[in-house]
């Protein structure tokens, strides 16, 4: 393996970087909200991660402080921020949020303990340093493994909760997800190459420092899940797009028809157009400021009728009203029909019986019984 690549592999803090890339992909696929915030926090997280690894890596060589040298609190803060933000986006994931908040609380308590311990022992009584920090003492080893186990738990649980939440939530991806997916793939490949190198050159590292092994397995699994999510997103996005488009068109069409319907009804009531014996479809269309096709469509869809039956229904109601008025008691039926808008006796008789089930004469007799 080339020396430069070997150095790159050696100085990559796989745990932090892979988590950051994976979580950032999930966040980008989850929402378009506040992209500047996500980008800024992402860059800050990488800086903190590299500082944590390189800085504490050097500290390990100049101090036997095994516990402090492997205490990457600075990088887990932004990682946890990503996971908590992701989980909090789903309002239904209250249980997930409470579980992760509990883990973060325990994490904060542990951080406070080690911070106070480091301050009072390293900067205070140096005689206690060997007892509490030298790696040859069992107390330091116990603390080290407690940290390792707890950090592993909070990371795996955080990832699991994040995936569980995002799996149940609708996702709105953008093109950035594909670019970051490629970056995640590259870094995952680097970690796999590191493990292959360790297997051949430093097999003892697999057992003594298994971070790269099991974390690569975890994050590679995340990579596969992310890829499957992308494939699912594309398919769901196409289906969702068609559904949304259809729904929007339906809503627009319904609103358009409703507006025309209201115009027709108000115009018929206010102007009593049906009394015009020469009224045609084009006249009604002109009055409501729309096309003849639109009027016919509204009558068919909203009233389940056609133009002639619609107009004649108004005329029949007007005839019935006039028959009951004192003023028109002596009027002949044909005269009343003409006043209501009918232009022939045949049309009047047909429309009246179709509407009431009776002839005009039968109806008139029934109201005076």
UniProtKB/TrEMBL annotation:
<dbReference type="InterPro" id="IPR020449">
    <property type="entry name" value="Tscrpt_reg_AraC-type_HTH"/>
</dbReference>
<feature type="transmembrane region" description="Helical">
    <location>
        <begin position="12"/>
        <end position="30"/>
    </location>
</feature>
<feature type="transmembrane region" description="Helical">
    <location>
        <begin position="99"/>
        <end position="122"/>
    </location>
</feature>
<feature type="domain" description="HTH araC/xylS-type">
    <location>
        <begin position="262"/>
        <end position="366"/>
    </location>
</feature>
<keyword id="KW-0805">Transcription regulation</keyword>
<dbReference type="InterPro" id="IPR009057">
    <property type="entry name" value="Homeodomain-like_sf"/>
</dbReference>
<feature type="transmembrane region" description="Helical">
    <location>
        <begin position="178"/>
        <end position="201"/>
    </location>
</feature>
<feature type="coiled-coil region">
    <location>
        <begin position="257"/>
        <end position="301"/>
    </location>
</feature>
<dbReference type="GO" id="GO:0043565">
    <property type="term" value="F:sequence-specific DNA binding"/>
</dbReference>
<keyword id="KW-1133">Transmembrane helix</keyword>
<keyword id="KW-0472">Membrane</keyword>
<dbReference type="GO" id="GO:0003700">
    <property type="term" value="F:DNA-binding transcription factor activity"/>
</dbReference>
<dbReference type="Pfam" id="PF12833">
    <property type="entry name" value="HTH_18"/>
</dbReference>
<dbReference type="InterPro" id="IPR018062">
    <property type="entry name" value="HTH_AraC-typ_CS"/>
</dbReference>
<feature type="transmembrane region" description="Helical">
    <location>
        <begin position="68"/>
        <end position="87"/>
    </location>
</feature>
<keyword id="KW-0804">Transcription</keyword>
<feature type="transmembrane region" description="Helical">
    <location>
        <begin position="37"/>
        <end position="62"/>
    </location>
</feature>
<feature type="transmembrane region" description="Helical">
    <location>
        <begin position="213"/>
        <end position="232"/>
    </location>
</feature>
<keyword id="KW-0812">Transmembrane</keyword>
<feature type="transmembrane region" description="Helical">
    <location>
        <begin position="142"/>
        <end position="166"/>
    </location>
</feature>
<dbReference type="InterPro" id="IPR018060">
    <property type="entry name" value="HTH_AraC"/>
</dbReference>
<protein>
    <submittedName>
        <fullName>AraC family transcriptional regulator</fullName>
    </submittedName>
</protein>
<keyword id="KW-0175">Coiled coil</keyword>
<keyword id="KW-0238">DNA-binding</keyword>
């Amino acid at each position: 393996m080339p020396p430069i690549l070997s150095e790159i592999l050696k100085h990559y803090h796989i745990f932090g970087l892979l988590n950051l890339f994976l979580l950032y992909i999930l966040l980008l696929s989850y929402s378009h909200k506040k992209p500047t915030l996500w980008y800024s926090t992402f860059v800050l997280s990488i800086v903190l991660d590299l500082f944590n690894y390189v800085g504490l890596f050097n500290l390990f060589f100049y101090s036997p402080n095994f516990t402090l040298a492997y205490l990457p609190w600075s990088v887990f803060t932004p990682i946890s921020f990503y996971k908590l933000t992701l989980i909090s986006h789903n309002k239904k994931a209250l249980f997930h949020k409470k579980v992760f908040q509990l883990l973060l609380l325990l994490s904060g308590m542990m951080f406070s303990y080690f911070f106070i311990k480091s301050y009072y022992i390293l900067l205070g009584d140096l005689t206690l340093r060997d007892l509490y920090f030298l790696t040859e003492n069992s107390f330091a080893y116990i603390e080290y493994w407690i940290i390792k186990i707890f950090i592993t738990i909070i990371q795996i649980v955080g990832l699991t909760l994040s995936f569980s939440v995002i799996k149940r939530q609708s996702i709105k991806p953008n093109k950035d997800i594909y670019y970051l997916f490629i970056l995640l793939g590259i870094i995952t490949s680097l970690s796999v190459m590191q493990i292959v190198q360790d297997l051949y050159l430093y097999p003892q590292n697999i057992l003594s420092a298994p971070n790269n092994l099991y974390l690569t397995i975890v994050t590679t699994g995340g990579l596969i899940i992310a890829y499957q999510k992308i494939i699912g997103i594309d398919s769901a996005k196409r289906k969702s797009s068609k559904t949304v488009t259809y729904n929007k068109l339906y809503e627009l069409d319904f609103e358009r028809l409703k507006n025309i319907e209201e115009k027709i009804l108000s115009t018929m009531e206010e102007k009593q157009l049906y009394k015009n014996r020469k009224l045609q479809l084009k006249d009604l269309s002109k009055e409501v400021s729309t096309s003849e096709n639109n009027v016919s469509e509204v009558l068919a869809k909203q009233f389940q009728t056609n133009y002639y039956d619609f107009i004649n229904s108004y005329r029949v109601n007007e005839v019935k009203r006039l028959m009951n008025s004192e003023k028109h008691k002596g009027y002949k039926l044909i005269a009343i029909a003409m006043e209501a808008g009918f232009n022939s006796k045949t049309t009047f008789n047909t429309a009246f019986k179709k509407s009431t089930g009776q002839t005009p004469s039968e109806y008139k007799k029934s109201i005076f019984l």
